């Protein structure tokens, strides 16, 4: 599986086919030994192709080697500061959108290679239509690619152990060799590994390359961590893989690949899952995968050199279609359209703009949907106009006294849910007047969180009422919110927060203070006091 894919990715990025094989060998050994997961397989991956191709186009092969080394060093630094644990916080719809977006990118970049290899940067749909109607399609290459793809799709249904990719690649190559003349092929391959050297910085603009290296580091780290987490779920591991160690292992693998002038690498979920299905139990499987690649390069170079580019392109197209996960998208459509929207936004952002724009848009939408679902703000509002309503509706023990006020102007609101930037405007309903109540009491006992926008809104309500000779009172404030709300206490009733509704009403003068109880003296105590007084008089 890795042999044709490594070659396909290297040639698609504008590099010699040998670069893909060398990367698979060197990084496969380093990553297999040092990864945080004993099942992880390290090598060139389709997710890295768009960014790697862009770096080659802008800075050449030397620029990609430098960016790969820099990205590896950044990954090691991320592992040392224990940044790997944050990967588990990424929502699953964003992860799915990431894979779908990479699939769309593969389809858009590889269809031109199948129909017109010399025009690899054209829009896929426009190019196919133009070449088809213009009659300039290399139909023999299309046929070879179609046979390769057909073998990849159908042979696993016959038997899972059939190496469908290699069989399809052989069929496509035989067709082109038998019928084709002068077709685009992989070309000559080295039979040994080159000597590791530091990349040359000559003619490379490092300042403009650094952002690309950072993007490569983040993309490779994200993909590897998501792959490792998926492997834990796939194998049912009792203990989670060490994601920080995985970052450092993948970083060292990228440094090694860059020193050999190779393609950037990451943890590959497709190859790792295939390895597990074949019986992998230890790191030896990952290391052996790399060693078998070296054997193929050393002994089968003349055969690999004759593989047609069209057949390799077909492999990437099949990978792209599988990454779309159409069955999963249909199931998600039936289960939750809002979740599907996160997948679609992430995928389209990656396909239209870039990986980071897509992931950022997906995270933003997922956050908004989460807040909307779990951060809804509910208000229970009651307008009180007479004292009898206090006992009946608010469960406050209003003392019965001749001077208890009969006419009240009170608005009581119980807030349920967090007060956040996305819902704080709902609180403005409490001062939707005139007439405005003389006292607005907000019960915060069911509020778990108040952000800066919520605090600012509560302060505005207090100042709004103060201008109209009214007051805002906050009651039953949870302990975790007291520090956040303390700065607005000066604007509240009595410049403080109250522990109960009754306390706020007493502070506002809407309830009379409880009368002092006269002390009750027992008759026996009266007699004892009288006897003591008489004794004191007899003996002055």
Q: Order of strands in the sheet with the most strands?
A: 3-4-5-6
Tell me the overall shape.
Answer: elongated
Could you say which structural class the secondary elements and strand pairing correspond to?
alpha/beta
**Mean pLDDT across every amino acid position:** 80
Radius of gyration: 36 Å
Q: How many DSSP E strands?
A: 6
Please give the share of residues in helix: 55-70%
Helical region count? 21
Beta-strand residue percentage: 5-15%
Order of helices and strands: HHEHHHHHHHEHHHHHHHEHEEHEHHH
Query: How far is the first residue's CA from the last residue's CA?
Result: 116 Å
Short description:
By secondary structure, the protein is α/β, with parallel strands linked by helices. The chain has 21 helices and six strands. The protein has two domains: 2-370, no CATH class; 377-507, STAS domain (Transcription Regulator spoIIAA), CATH 3.30.750.
Protein described:
This protein has 540 residues and is α/β, with parallel strands linked by helices. The chain folds into two domains: 2-370, no CATH class; 377-507, STAS domain (Transcription Regulator spoIIAA). The chain is built from 21 helices and six strands. It has helices at 2-12, 17-34, 49-80, 92-115, 124-134, 139-158, 164-179, 206-235, 243-259, 269-277, 283-299, 301-304, 309-324, 326-335, 337-352, 355-374, 388-393, 452-467, 479-485, 501-507, 523-538; strands at residues 42-43, 266-267, 378-386, 407-416, 439-446, 471-475. The strands form two sheets. It has a four-stranded mixed sheet with strand order 3-4-5-6, with helices on both faces. A two-stranded antiparallel ribbon has the order 1-2. Helix 18 links the parallel strand 5 (439-446) and strand 6. Helix 4 runs parallel beside helix 5 (124-134) and helix 8 (206-235) packs parallel to helix 10 (269-277). The protein is elongated, with a radius of gyration of 36 Å. The N and C termini lie far apart (116 Å).
